[in-house]
Design goal:
The complex is a heterotrimer of chains A (about 600), B (about 325) and C (about 500). In chain A, about 60% of the residues lie in helices and about 10% in strands. With about 600 residues, chain A is of the alpha/beta class. Chain A folds into 2 domains: about 270 residues, MetI-like (MetI-like fold); about 180 residues, P-loop containing nucleotide triphosphate hydrolases (Rossmann fold). In chain A, the strands form 2 sheets. Chain A has a 7-stranded mixed β-sheet with strand order 1-11-10-4-9-8-7, with helices on both faces. In chain A, a hairpin with a 5-residue loop joins strand 2 and strand 3. In chain A, helix 5 runs parallel beside helix 8 and helix 10 packs antiparallel against helix 12. With about 325 residues, chain B is mostly helical. Chain B is globular and about 85 Å long. In chain C, the strands form 5 sheets. In chain C, strands 1, 8, 9, 10, 11, 12, 13, 14, 17 and 18 form a 10-stranded mixed β-sheet that branches. Chain C is about 25% helix and about 20% strand. Chain C has 2 domains: about 250 residues, Periplasmic binding protein-like II (D-Maltodextrin-Binding Protein, domain 2, 3-Layer(aba) Sandwich); about 210 residues, Dipeptide-binding Protein, domain 3. Classes of the chains: A alpha/beta (about 600), B mainly alpha (about 325), C alpha+beta (about 500). At the A-B interface, helix 6, helix 7, helix 10, helix 12 and helix 14 of A face helix 1, helix 6, helix 8, helix 9 and helix 10 of B.
């Protein structure tokens, strides 16, 4: 176990590093991100070199220059105490940014540390943190700030430190969620088993997962820090010893009828900085999403993608006996692709053709990523965002589904073509009862009353072998087991009396014992209802059990097709043969990528 | 359900207790010569000392605190040191005003924010960009600037609404509307941005869920799945943001109430903290903390309604 | 007695909004009050702390009091004492007993007739009440009713300001049975020209009053309805004026006056405060340098008062060197420019005193005053080498810190009270609150004593001598008298009141 599991750690870490540098580079290519970054850099440079750039002492008053217009000695004019606006603006940039960064730093140190500890060790520390945070959030922030200011005095650093404490729950929550999300991940377990210390795990693996979200959060909070700073200055509670934007703004407010132009510079500085911070955060998030989106698509079938669509023609086994059942579904030259950000199209199905006759069970077999699920989805026209049928036709009952309007397609789905998904638990809406999820489609597609639909649903639930249909009907998805959920999904698929059921690996996610029951159920239903089935699987056992006809898919193409018996007896394509060898050894042929994809999903979610 | 509420209420009471203790300590540390403040500059030192004794300011912190808690438990929060108005009376009359603002804003925010968020999630592209821009602007432009802009355009130039003041909802609905519309708009803009981007994100996330495909495969149209199923699932995170916004609005209302001369809690909060009117500030702390507790319970119940997994049997 | 100029927390607007302001200045519909008998909407910049007679405040809260109560005496716009509830009044020989004859035709809103008993109890209740002005009656040892219309006040020492006090909140009269009723804090019982309409009142925002149909002096009831509308923020006040929501209003911030007049309102100007440095440590206990009169005079000469009026005061103010107001008998026109801006003279004086290189001094500063003001004050002193180290005092701490005697000198603004005795008692005498280090000289104490106990002529003489003395000896370094401004719309006529932040209620009438 430890031997085999320790390998993913370096792989994942390297992958992560690659993804990150990728994001960094991408950010520079993202126009908004780049502009925001430039603005922020300029602000920081102005802050750092304020001493060199400022023409005058920012605090030197001159009663003769009060509200002096721009020009001459004062390029941007003078304020209500006759001080040089340009010089003040430069120094204000320094102190405003430093103050905001200081608050964010305090918030991050407190929030991230406690979030890491609470999320990683949980137990009592977690309960304590939850309490402390509830208290921080229950106290009205403004009152706390006002009171704190009365206690600690007007120092900008102390006030912003207090504000940092008030902000810390934001970082805590972010870190905590992310840590809880990854702490039981394989690669963390593996590291732990491999004897890596807690501190090192937190530092190397967990921290690296939350780093980007923390940067995004920090950018947003820095903006809030600047806003609060100017709010305090606006209320006359700022630190008058150092110039800040808020100070300049409130000074300008007091003279807005005499010298409205004074409002422009501090407003501009605040707005520009806040907007840049937000845009920077957004751009970073977008790039992260995009980076995280890649391996996801990998799982859906681009592994080993061969751009060569011509390929060899599939090996076709002869019909063993004449089959006079009419053709129900005929897929011809189907090409499925995903639009890429660079404008290109990434193909995942490269010219698939297959037919399903009425009442026939057609098995579509291949390893993960061979494009079989994509084929199934494209028949239903339910490809994920960005995916589309690039070429080919899908003839069903005389209509070309590939070119049908969406509203016409809605009428086909459920009523004519039904679908049984792979993962039972993720395919039921967690917010509605199982019953209502069965009733709703029936009332919509069959136009029957709710009461009638309910009666039918209860009957169906009994039919698919659920011991207590009423109870299941009233249950929520999380209250039933995976096997039961799959029965529910099968009941849903047959509920609207479709002519064709597309079953996408209907047993893969289930325990071996349950698998057999589900297969039995499918077989029974199929023979009772005489419905055609296109079953997508990687398991030859399933094919042997159910199918009349088999198509073997590899790299988005069909390599061998024909009657099941014939293929079993004599697989001709080397790939088919290797699949046969694989089941004899192991039984499973799934890729190792699931976890890295899951991890990216978490990062992406916490980034929001 | 009842047990759940009771348990949360109990936790809320403990939370209130801890929060108010902290606040009391903070205020005590920050308090100045209050008796002098109350009596004004012409009072003699003797009068000031007598006043301090009358208010119990000469007592040690712990005695004053125990005394305060003892009364607070019975609902007696004392009277303002400066106006002698009972704290409960001072707060309740103004709480209704602030709450009508904040609740109005929350409703507007939830509706508009959800609509914008769904629109952006569905159309992406230009709509997405529009919502993003609105979000950034709502985030970056201070609420008071928006308020002043609204007053100048819609009250002073167009004369559609009253520039200042407040009419009770119970007195006249049109009157109420003419005074709260602009403040609610001013308060909403920032909050709408937050809700819209949250809804956009969760709708996009939820649309990627497997069960969305399955429901659509049963012949439900995309819109039906979106409005009935996706929105309900995306509602959870949006509710959490709405709760945070609600609490934030209690603070944001201060500036808006000031600009529109609305007699809500805002002016009381600013004045009482500035003057060190401890009974009044403590009343405010307890009320706001209680609102936070109640809002959180309500949100949790709503969350349970949206998400059965979070439901407590 | 004093108040911060609320110039502090200032308004807020983008240039866009500004454009809107000037374009939108069409004046509004002038509230709802035009002609007698309508409604007067009055912008007040203090909310009603209470309506209870014994705790009543004054200054910006005086309209609340004058609406529902009558005072024993009244002051005309110049501060001259006139009959009020009392038609006649006279002191005994040594000015320790004041006998007053009251009207017999006054009824309270609870139906009772006003008697001397009500007045006596009201005065004693006020002395023991929560009002910041309770100490006005500190010399009052007893008040009793001789008969229904004769009231006798006994003092432990003469108080020349007592009659003036009786025209203010100290002289308010409530019925005996209502004096200690806590409900009157929200729902007063008085005999005044208006009755609080609690149904239409929104506490903390808008106080509505109806005309009292049984009022004894209908000549003073210029309106059927009175609405006192509270504004805390200069921006909302400006918006209310531009939207025509008020007929008259006090102002918070002089820099928006031009905006208000542009919408057709009239700025009624009057003097109320003086504004400058208190040079309290004249004996040099905290800052030895201030013990030298030349240093104090140098500070006076170093103040560029014209520029300060222009910058800090937005042009609304009159430079001065004395703290007595023009309305006072002690006022001396020739002292106005006793110290005119003369930097060379100031520097010479510093050198003569041995401080050619200046010195450092610590002063308090409050966040409620714009930071630029403090910077400019420090800059004025920097001209003669004096370096100011400011100590930031939180809003609630600022005044106690000054009064606690922590600082040798400080900037402040104080009201110029209606009577000179009041002013001297408050700002000059050894025991005066604002003589923060309580340093004095025998001459000064003698003059103050004469002002209290001497004849009217003696008091005037003493006042003049006192004024000249403190100007010459530079007890203070006044900058200017800021102009107080009360706005009125085109339909309303206003007569400002000497020594009060707002006009008296009956001096606001329809045109």
């Amino acid at each position: 176990m430890s031997e085999s599991a320790s390998t993913p750690v370096p792989t994942v870490a390297a992958e992560l590093r690659a993804a990150r540098s990728h994001v960094g580079r991408r950010l520079l290519k993202n126009p908004t991100g780049l502009v925001a970054l430039i603005v922020l850099t300029v602000m920081v440079l102005l802050a750092v070199f304020a001493d060199l750039l400022a023409p005058m002492d920012p605090s030197k008053a001159n009663i003769q220059d009060v509200l002096a217009p721009a020009g001459g000695a004062h390029p941007l004019g003078a304020d209500s105490a006759g001080r040089d606006v340009l010089s003040r603006l430069l120094f204000a940039t320094r102190f405003s940014i430093a103050g905001a960064l200081w608050a964010v730093l305090i918030a991050a140190v407190i929030g991230v540390t406690s979030g890491l500890i609470a999320g990683y060790y949980q137990k009592w520390f977690e309960s304590v943190s939850v309490w402390v945070i509830s208290i921080i959030q229950a106290l009205p922030g403004i009152v706390v700030l006002l009171a704190a200011r009365a206690v600690v005095g007007p120092s900008i650093w102390l006030i912003m430190a207090v504000f940092g404490v008030i902000l810390s729950p934001a970082f805590y929550r972010l870190t905590y969620t992310a840590v809880v999300g990854v702490r039981n991940e394989l690669f963390i377990d593996a590291a732990r088993v491999a004897g890596v210390g807690d501190a090192s795990i937190i530092g190397r693996h967990i921290l690296s997962v939350v780093r980007a979200p923390i940067i995004i959060q920090a950018a947003l909070l820095a903006g809030i820090g600047i806003a609060v700073q100017s709010g305090l200055d606006f209320l006359g509670l700022g630190d008058t010893n150092v110039p800040t934007w808020g100070q300049m703004l409130s000074d300008a407010f007091s003279r807005m009828y005499q010298a409205p132009v004074l409002l422009i510079w501090p407003s501009l500085a605040i707005a520009l900085t806040s907007i840049s911070l937000v845009l920077f955060g957004n751009a970073l998030r977008d790039e992260l999403e995009r980076a995280a989106g890649k391996p996801k698509k990998k799982r859906r079938g681009t592994t080993g993608y061969v751009p060569d669509t011509s390929g060899d023609a599939p090996v076709v086994h002869d019909e063993e006996r004449a089959d006079d059942r009419p053709t129900l579904l005929a897929v011809d030259g189907l090409v499925v692709g995903y639009d890429q950000p660079d404008g290109g199209v990434k193909q995942v199905v490269n010219g698939v053709s297959l037919t399903v006759r009425k009442g026939e069970v057609h098995g579509l077999i291949g390893e993960s990523g061979s494009g079989k699920t994509q084929t199934a989805w494209s028949i239903l026209r339910l490809l994920p965002a960005g995916g589309r049928i690039v070429a080919g036709t899908v003839s069903f009952d005389g209509k070309d589904l590939a070119h049908l309007s969406e509203s016409a397609m809605v009428k086909i789905r459920g009523r004519r073509i039904a679908y049984i998904p792979q993962e039972p638990m993720s395919n039921l809406d967690p917010s509605f009862t199982i019953g209502s999820q069965l009733v709703e489609p029936m009332t919509v597609t069959l136009g029957i009353s709710k009461a009638e639909a309910k009666e039918r649903a209860l009957a169906l639930l009994g039919r698919v072998g659920l011991p207590d249909p009423k109870k299941t009907f009233d249950s929520y998805p999380h209250e039933v087991s995976g096997g039961q959920a799959q029965r529910v999904l099968i009941a849903g698929a047959v509920s609207c009396e479709a002519d064709l059921i597309i079953a996408d690996e209907p047993t893969t996610a289930l325990d071996v014992t349950v698998q057999a029951d589900i297969l039995d159920l499918l077989r029974d239903l199929q023979s009772d209802l005489h419905v055609a089935v296109l079953i997508v699987t990687h398991n030859f056992g399933v094919v042997a059990d159910l199918c009349d006809r088999v198509s073997v898919m590899q790299n988005g193409r069909i390599v061998e097709t024909g009657p099941a018996r014939s293929i079993f007896r004599g697989p001709r394509h080397p790939y088919t043969r290797s699949l046969f060898d694989a089941i004899l050894e192991d039984g499973a042929a799934r890729g190792p990528l699931a976890h890295s994809a899951d991890r990216n999903t978490i990062t992406e979610r916490s980034a929001r | 359900m009842l047990r759940f509420i009771l348990r949360r209420l109990l936790a809320g009471v403990i939370l209130l207790f801890v929060a108010s203790s902290l606040a009391y300590l903070l205020l005590y540390l920050g308090a100045g010569d209050i008796a002098r403040q109350i009596l004004g500059v012409s009072a003699t030192q003797e009068q000031v000392a007598a006043k301090a004794a009358q208010l119990g300011l000469d007592q040690p912190l712990i005695v004053r605190y125990v005394d305060w808690v003892g009364h607070a438990i019975t609902g007696d929060f004392g009277a303002s040191w400066f106006t002698s108005q009972p704290v409960v009376a001072a707060i309740t009359s103004r709480l209704a005003v602030t709450l009508s603002l904040v609740i109005g804003t929350t409703v507007v925010t939830a509706l508009v924010g959800t609509a914008l968020g769904v629109w952006a999630a569905r159309k992406r592209g230009a709509a997405d960009r529009f919502v993003q821009i609105v979000s950034v602007l709502g985030f970056a432009i201070p609420g008071f600037l928006i308020a002043i802009f609204l007053v100048n355009v819609f009250a002073l130039n167009l004369g559609w609404f009253k520039p200042t003041g407040f009419v009770q909802l119970s007195t006249s609905f049109p009157g109420w509307l003419s005074t709260v519309t602009l403040p609610i708009l001013a308060l909403s803009i920032g909050a709408i941005a937050a809700i819209a981007s949250q809804v956009r994100g969760s709708v996009i996330d939820t649309m990627r869920q497997d069960w969305v495909r399955t429901l659509r495969s049963r012949g439900l149209s995309e819109n039906r799945v979106l409005y009935k199923h996706v929105l309900r699932n995306a509602g959870g995170p949006a509710l959490a943001v709405l709760a945070v916004q609600f609490v934030g609005l209690l603070g944001g209302a201060i500036i808006v109430e000031k600009i529109f001369a609305i007699p809500g809690l805002g002016p009381v909060a600013v004045d009482s903290t500035a003057r060190g009117d401890i009974p009044l500030v403590m009343g405010l702390v307890v009320v706001t903390a209680a609102i936070v507790v109640v809002v959180n319970i309500v949100i949790e119940i709503l969350h349970g309604f949206l998400n059965p997994k979070a439901r407590i049997s | 007695m004093f108040r911060f100029k609320r110039a502090a927390v200032l308004a807020v607007a983008g240039t866009l909004a500004l454009a809107g302001c000037s374009a939108g200045g069409s004046g509004g519909d002038g509230g709802s009050g035009n002609g007698s008998g309508g409604t007067l909407t009055w912008g007040v910049i203090a909310e009603a702390s209470t309506f209870a007679q014994k705790d009543m405040r004054w200054a910006n809260e005086s309209p609340y009091a004058q609406a529902v109560y009558d005072t024993l005496l009244r002051a005309d716009a110049e501060g001259k004492i006139e009959p009020g509830l009392a038609t006649e009044w006279s002191y005994n020989e040594d000015k320790t007993v004041l006998t007053m004859t009251l009207r017999d035709d006054v009824t309270f809103t609870n139906g009772e007739t006003l008697t001397a008993e009500d007045a006596a109890k009201s005065l004693l209740a006020f002395k023991g009440g929560q009002s910041p002005n309770a100490t006005n009656l500190i010399n009052l040892t007893d008040a009793k009713a001789i008969d229904d219309t004769t009231l006798e006040l006994t003092l432990d020492a003469p108080n020349p300001a007592l009659e003036t006090y009786l025209t203010q909140n100290s002289g308010l009269v409530a019925p005996v049975e209502a004096i200690d009723d806590p409900a009157t804090a929200q729902n007063p019982v008085g005999s005044g020209p208006y009755i609080l309409n609690t149904d239409e009142t929104v506490v903390g925002s808008s106080y509505a009053f109806d005309k009292n149909p049984d009022y004894w002096n209908p000549d003073d009831q210029h309106y059927d309805k009175l609405v006192l509308q509270y504004y805390a923020d200069p921006t909302s006040l400006l918006n209310a004026v531009q939207g025509g929501q008020v007929n008259v209003t006090n102002t918070i911030d002089v820099s928006s006056i031009d905006q208000m007049t542009a919408t057709g309102y009239t700025a009624n100007e009057f003097a109320l405060n003086w504004w400058g440095f208190l040079l309290s440590d004249r004996e040099g206990t905290l800052a030895p340098e201030l013990a030298d009169v030349k240093v104090r005079q140098a500070i006076n000469y170093a103040l560029d008062k014209e520029s300060l009026v222009k910058t800090v005061g937005s042009g609304y103010g009159t430079p001065t060197s004395q703290i007595f107001p023009p309305s006072s008998p002690s006022f001396d026109e020739s002292l106005e420019d006793f110290y005119s801006y003369d930097l060379d003279k100031a520097k010479d004086l510093m050198a003569e005193a041995g401080y050619a290189d200046g010195f450092e001094v610590t002063m308090p500063r409050a966040p409620a005053i714009p930071e630029s003001h403090w910077t400019l004050y420090a800059d004025q002193l920097a001209q003669i080498g004096i370096t100011v180290n400011y100590e930031e005092q939180a809003g609630a701490e600022f005044i106690p810190a000054i009064l606690g005697g922590k600082y040798p000198m400080t900037w402040f603004t104080l009201q110029q009270d209606p009577t000179d005795y009041q002013l001297a008692q408050f700002q000059i005498a050894e025991a005066a609150t604002w003589n923060t280090l309580h340093q004095s000289t025998p001459e000064v104490e003698q003059w103050v004593s004469t002002m209290q106990t001497g004849t009217e002529d003696e008091a005037v003489e003493a006042g003049k001598a006192l004024n000249t003395y403190i100007v010459e000896n530079a007890w203070f370094a006044p900058m200017y008298r800021p102009t107080a401004i009360f706005m009125s719309d085109a339909n309303t006529k206003v007569t400002t009141q000497v020594g009060n932040a707002v006009p008296y209620l009956w001096n606001v009438q329809p045109k």
